[in-house]
Structures are given as C-alpha cells and as structure tokens.
Amino acid sequence: MKHLYSLALVFFIGLQAYAQEEAFLKKQPLDSLYKEDQFYVGVTYNLLGNQPSGVTQSGFSSGFHFGFIKDMPINTKRNIAIGAGLGVSINSFNQNLFISENPRGLSFSLLNRDDTRYTKNRFSNYMLELPLEFRWRTSTAEDYKFWRIYTGVKFGYVFTNQIKYKGEPEGFKINNANVFESFQYGLTMSAGYNTWNFYVYYGLTPIFNSSATLYSESIDLNAIKIGLLFYIL
C-alpha cells in the first residue's frame, strides 16, 4: 500500500505541475528562442538483469527520479536539441539474495521461503545522476503539446545504500555496505506525447563490485528501470 501512495503522489505532482505550466504558457508571448522540458520527475518499476541461477524478485521494486536538464537546441527550428543535467534517484530492489555480516565482511546466499520465514529482503541505493540526451520533438513556439523521443546515457554515483532484512531469526539493517559499485551508467530512452512519457533505463554496469560473490561466482546483476516520466518547462 505504501508504494501505491508513492505512485499516486508522483502522478499528482506531475499532473499539477503540467497544468500550472500549461496555464503559464498560455499567458506568455511567443519566444523564438524557446527551450523545452528542463525539469523532470518520474517513477519506475525496477528489474534485475543478468540474474544468477536461483535469484528471483518479489514484491514491488520502485524507483523515484527527479532533476534538471539544460535544453540546448542545435537547429533553427529548435526541435532537435542536446540535454545535459543533474538529478537524484532513489531505487529499491526486493529479491531473495541474502546479504549478511560475518567477522570477515559481508557474504551472499539465497533465501528459500520453504526454509526461512521473512517479510522483507531489500537493498536500496541513492544516486546522484548526470543525464546526457539527444532530443527530437515536434514542438514549435506556438505548440506546447507535442511528440518527443529523447535518447541518451545516464551516469550515476551511489552516495549511500542500505540493506534491510525482516524475518527469522532476526531482522537487521546495514548502511553503506562496501559491496556496491559506486559508479553506474546506462542507456536511457523516453518517448511520448504531452504529459505522458514512457521511460526505460538499461544499466551497463553491475550493481555490485567484484568483492560480491555467490557460491564463488561473481554477481553481475544490472538494473533495468521501466516507468513514466513527466517533463516540466
């Protein structure tokens, strides 16, 4: 239920911001040097790619994204542009990969619901992000409802992380574990019309660093994020 409230809040913020922007634009004189889509807010469903045998996801794994992108048109019609910006994202992954502490550090194993009773097993990361985009759209100085396709790459730095487990024999929380890869990057695409834009991110770097192993094998999980993005002038 908590996730549904979060989703509803993001949708409400996006719709309210767009409505206010639309009302504002109607009152403004035409600008031949206009720019588009410089703020964004979004929500995603987070998937794990390259899953080792036995690793599965459970529950809803969510991502929340917001930031600013400098729009820089590169043609006279101003419908093709380069975008560069700065943002923040909060990402969670619910799965059965058990990360526990021992005297030699952190170890990885798999949870089996037939053997272990637990209600939550999740890791989360908080990222500072640098999006770079190539932007194509059908906008004009008169038309603020248009089609768009934005593709690019997003670089990220994980500035904090958390592992949380609730279950038997006892729950625990680990902050800033040293098994996560700090620098992340991946390919992005957003496409849509007017308010609603489909968004996808495919991570090209693993979530964990080389110290993370499961049964002596490296863990090459990567992040795949699918959701909606709202752009605001």
Describe the structure.
- It is a single chain.
- The strands form three sheets. Strands 1-2-3-6-7-9-10-13 form an eight-stranded antiparallel β-barrel. Strands 4-5 form a two-stranded antiparallel ribbon.
- Strand 2 (62-73) and strand 3 form a beta hairpin.
- The protein has one helix and 13 strands.
- By secondary structure, the chain is mainly beta.
- The mean pLDDT is 87.
- It is elongated and about 65 Å long.
- The protein has one domain (49-232).
- The two termini are 31 Å apart.
- The longest helix is centred in the N-terminal third of the chain and has 25 residues, at 2-26.
Question: What topology emerges from the helices and strands here?
Answer:
Elements (H helix, E strand, L loop, with lengths): L1 H25 L12 E11 L12 E12 L6 E15 L2 E6 L2 E6 L7 E20 L9 E21 L4 E4 L7 E11 L2 E8 L9 E2 L2 E2 L3 E11 L1
Antiparallel strand pairs: 1-2, 1-13, 2-3, 3-6, 4-5, 6-7, 7-8, 7-9, 9-10, 10-13, 11-12
Question: Quick summary of this structure?
Answer:
The protein has 233 residues and is mainly β. The chain contains one helix and 13 strands, in the order H-E-E-E-E-E-E-E-E-E-E-E-E-E.
